[in-house]
Specification:
By secondary structure, the protein is an alpha/beta fold. The protein is built from 28 helices and 26 strands. The strands form three sheets. It has an 18-stranded mixed β-sheet, with helices on both faces. GO terms for molecular function: nucleotide binding. One of its GO terms (biological process) is defense response to bacterium.
């Protein structure tokens, strides 16, 4: 599903479903379906071309036509889906051929919306019910994009980023530190007299508006490299690489290449050869600004000769993959709050001291929303510069930032700069990004929650056969991160993002676009409402943010998210929203809600979340009627096994089920599409056997327990292991048990080759199946053992993908073997914890754990008093990336306070002399 095309891309496949024999439609009706399908595909192709052009490049009537067709497509999909549910799902009713003919008639009327003067050759309505296929083929030519898309430009558009090349001195506030850091990166290790110095490349990466161009221009102007050849060349979003290469040559030698040199006779390859020949014996400093894709960078890089003369290249980009490809990436940071205030107040009042006291509070709110982005600060301060006496206007501006409601020339310039990243997105990512406007400002959006909702909305399109919908959605999420359009809010310990946030300025952009396209309607608690431009537009996605239940027509509602702790007594009115696909009540106060039976009437529902709602009632059996339900999130609410067993019997399309330590319900084996299951209790071999039927599982969190009568089923572990051996797609496995199940996993090792996450809470020793050869993808390992041997540490150190390791010894503390972390061990480890046993002499050899940032470990104070441990033994200086430590001092009751202080002082000293001066914390 695309933003501009609405549901149009889905309609042909849905119509073709109706050709199946079980619907028993007459031949004439089937012919109508085939013709309509072809026409829809043709219109969809046209709208995809319309979607590629920014709105200001479209004729106004074309935009209206596209909007009408999009709205019509939603209505058509609603009609088809409703028809299919009446035929296939509850309530069971036979197919009604008369109803389907009526449906086709309604579609014909809907397509009459395509009449428009803007569509020149699209004369009249598209009568798909009466025209033959030959006529449809003739009509196809009338959708030529050249005829309907481009609006004649009154004047050539000027790139608003050009001002960054020629900033005023007042706009360079706070740039010195980052400029000097970049210069240091470029010149580190330089020796003027040393031959064969490699060309050094530094890439500067960050979101649009962060000041990348301004920064590198400052570096370009200040850095004196004794390089006779210098060039500063912009590339841009859709570069003409011949022009880029030509611009580099002209910048390097204007005298030669501006007079008498004919660039027209050279193709791209010849320009590359010319540039390499020119640079082969010259030291140069070249800035390539605003690179958008890896292929463009590779071509430019090939043209810049690596002549071993110590030349420098700097590139700027919004995309992390481009920066990684270039190498030596420098992630541009937002301005500090202090510098932000200097820039903001300086442009309005001259200095902070000149700001009236009653403006301070709203100023702080505005600065928080600007988030240290220079473009946002400069834009907002320019907007307020002539309104320094009107506190009401300042509050209005503050409220508009992030809401998409602001309308001002400066705000439009900022949106235009940020929108370059938006219009560079493929159509499906535009839809996914705009969907984020449904979340409140500054909201931390959990990645899984967002992806499951994308899937429920049909935004995630089927990819390769080997990819699940969630994996594909995760790739969408990662691409938005790569393009700096969303930011990581929190990381999981395995190094993957757990949640994201959207900068207020990006939120401002997507809310504005969402409002224009009637994509999301947001009702805010302060009576502001981000509604569609036209009041006649239907509300299809609704976000309620700290507000009472609204009074509006919601019969066409497809998605609702409520961000409020209030109790909504009017929630039962949702029972009329038969088209609802997403009902997200996460975090709402449902403690006193009498019943959720109305949910059973929402036959289209794909996503239902009651997580963290304190819902105290019984789950209604009617939820089991929701045959299309994909995600059921019941996390952190108390539910009984019996109603859940009744419910899941009918949910054959379920792919995600989250509960909070609930006994595995009967009938789970029927959910053969299930990919994500947490946190279920298994207390019998029969229940364990059910898991073996869930062959699509990628994530499983299970607790193996005694049964309700307190008895341990001896065959429970065996049954669980048999099931585990069938789960060949499992990636994340968390097993909590009071039995040593890990040691018995030998027979299941072949099914665990895709594991990236493993948590085992009890085992006697390190299982032999945990080996570098069998667990190539394992990045997270948390394991509790009775004993740890030197050989165990050696094996764990060879796990090449391991980023997080937590090893803990359970039971009584005992003297264990000493171990050494060898020079090539744990190459990717970022976080490591060794608890319950004492670190030993010469723990780290040079080269061990080169990326370790966070280290937690235990020291037995007895070892110190017995002379088995001294401060130098750990060799912390061999950990070059260390940033923080936590030390557990074991058995402090057996030793004097003086000994505790002495140990702490020795370790503090080691932290002080370490190159990174890591933070250190002690626990007793």
């Amino acid at each position: 599903m695309d933003l501009v095309t609405g549901a149009l891309g889905k309609l042909p496949s849905k119509l073709l479903v109706l050709l199946r024999d079980e619907y028993k439609l007459q031949t004439g009706v089937k012919d109508q379906i085939r013709r309509l399908t072809r026409e829809l595909e043709s219109i969809h192709a046209t709208l995809r071309k319309v979607a590629q052009a920014p709105p200001d490049q479209l004729d106004e009537q074309v935009r209206l036509w596209a909007s009408d067709i999009r709205e019509a497509s939603y209505d058509m999909e609603d009609i088809i889906d409703t028809f299919l549910i009446r035929v296939d799902g509850p309530p069971k009713e036979p197919a009604d051929e008369a109803m389907f003919k009526s449906l086709m008639k309604k579609m014909g009327k809907l397509f009459s919306l395509s009449k428009s003067k803007a569509c020149h050759k699209i004369a009249g309505a598209i009568d798909v019910l009466s025209k033959q296929l030959e006529e449809v083929e003739k009509l196809r030519g009338r959708y030529t994009i050249d005829d309907i898309v481009h609006k004649p430009a009154a004047m050539t558009s000027i790139d608003p980023r050009l001002s960054a090349l020629y900033p005023k001195a007042s706009q360079l506030v706070g740039i010195d530190e980052q400029r000097d850091k970049l210069i240091q990166m470029l010149t580190e290790g330089d020796h003027d007299m040393q031959p064969n110095q490699e060309t050094k490349i530094v890439s500067v990466v960050g979101v649009g508006g962060l000041g990348k161009t301004t920064l590198v221009k400052a570096v370009y102007d200040k850095l004196n490299l004794n390089a006779p050849c210098k060039a500063f060349v912009p590339v841009g979003q859709n570069p003409d690489l011949k022009k880029v290469l030509k611009d580099i040559l002209i910048a390097l030698d204007k005298e030669s290449y501006m007079k008498g040199f004919d660039f027209n006779i050279l193709d791209e390859r010849q320009l590359i050869d010319e540039l390499r020949e020119f640079l082969k014996d010259k030291r140069y400093f070249i800035v390539i600004d605003d690179v958008w894709d890896i292929e463009s960078w590779k071509i430019i890089r090939n043209a810049l000769d690596d002549n071993s003369l110590g030349s420098k290249i700097v590139i700027t980009t919004r995309k992390h993959d481009v920066a990684d490809e270039a190498g030596c990436s420098y992630k541009l940071k937002p301005l500090t709050h202090k510098i932000s205030k200097i820039l903001f107040y300086g442009r309005i009042f001259g200095s902070e001291s000149e700001c009236p006291a009653h403006f301070s509070e709203v100023s702080e709110k505005i600065l928080k929303k600007c988030g240290g982005v220079p473009l946002a600060i400069v834009t907002t301060s320019s907007l307020l510069a002539n309104k320094s006496g009107n506190i009401k206007v300042w509050n209005e501006v503050c409220d508009s930032i992030g809401s998409g409601l602001g309308s001002n020339h400066n705000m439009e310039i900022m949106r235009k700069i940020l929108s370059l990243s938006y219009y560079d997105l493929p159509s499906h990512l535009k839809t996914c990004l705009l969907y984020i406007s449904i979340f409140p400002e500054d909201y931390e959006i959990e990645k899984k929650r967002l992806i499951w909702r994308w899937i429920a909305e049909d935004f995630v399109q089927h990819g390769e056969v080997t990819q699940s919908l969630y994996e594909l959605g995760e790739s969408y999420f990662n691409e938005l991160l790569n393009r700096s359009l969303i930011q990581v809010a929190d990381m999981l310990v395995d190094g993957t993002p757990r949640s994201c946030r959207v900068h207020d300025m990006v939120l401002e952009l997507i809310c504005s676009l969402s409002r224009q396209e009637n994509f999301v309607t947001t009702v805010l608690g302060d009576s502001r409402q981000r509604t569609p431009p036209s009041g006649s537009k239907k509300v299809r996605r609704l976000s309620l943010q700290n507000t009472a239940w609204p009074t509006m027509e919601i019969s066409k509602l497809r998605s609702i998210a409520i961000f409020s702790s209030a109790i909504f007594s009017s929630m039962t009115s949702l029972s009329c929203c038969h088209l609802l696909r997403v009902l997200d009540l996460q975090g709402c106060n449902l403690k006193n809600l009498p019943s959720l039976r109305f949910v059973g009437k929402l036959f289209h529902l794909r996503y239902l979340s009651l997580a963290y709602t304190d819902y105290g009632g019984e789950l209604p059996a009617e939820i089991g009627k929701l045959q299309f339900l994909q995600t059921l999130d019941l996390f952190w609410i108390k539910i009984d096994e019996r109603p859940l067993s009744i419910i899941i019997a009918g949910l054959r399309q379920m792919i995600c089920l989250r509960v909070a330590l609930t006994r595995l319900p009967n009938g789970l084996r029927c959910l053969t599409s299930l990919e994500h299951l947490r946190e279920v209790i298994v207390d019998s071999a029969c229940m364990a056997e059910e898991l073996g039927h869930l062959t699509q599982l990628r994530m499983l969190y299970v607790q193996l327990r005694k049964d309700k009568d307190g008895r341990w089923d001896e065959s429970l572990c065996t049954g669980f292991l048999r099931s585990l051996a069938k789960l060949h797609k499992i990636q994340k496995l968390l097993v909590v048990t009071s039995s040593d199940v890990a040691a018995d996993l030998e027979g299941s090792v072949e099914s665990l080759g895709n594991l990236s996450y493993l948590h085992i809470n009890k085992t006697t020793s390190l299982p032999t199946w945990i080996s570098p050869a069998s667990l190539l993808l394992l990045s997270y390992l948390r394991i509790t053992m009775v004993q740890v041997r030197t050989a165990d540490i050696r094996v764990l150190g060879m796990l090449q993908a391991l980023r997080y390791l937590h090893v803990e010894v359970s039971g009584d503390i005992q003297v264990l073997e000493r171990f050494i972390v060898s020079h090539d061990a744990f190459p990717c480890a970022i976080k490591c914890s060794f608890f319950g046993f004492s670190m030993t002499p010469s723990a780290f050899q040079p080269g061990a754990m080169p990326r370790l940032e966070e280290f937690k470990f235990s020291i037995r104070l007895k070892d110190f008093t017995a002379g088995k441990f001294i401060g130098d033994d750990l060799a912390l200086g061999h950990l070059p990336s260390l940033q923080s430590m936590r030390v557990d001092l074991l058995g402090e009751q057996d030793v004097s306070e003086e000994v505790v202080v002495e140990v702490e002082e020795k370790l503090k000293h080691k932290a002080d002399v370490h190159r990174n001066h890591p933070y250190i914390e002690f626990r007793k």
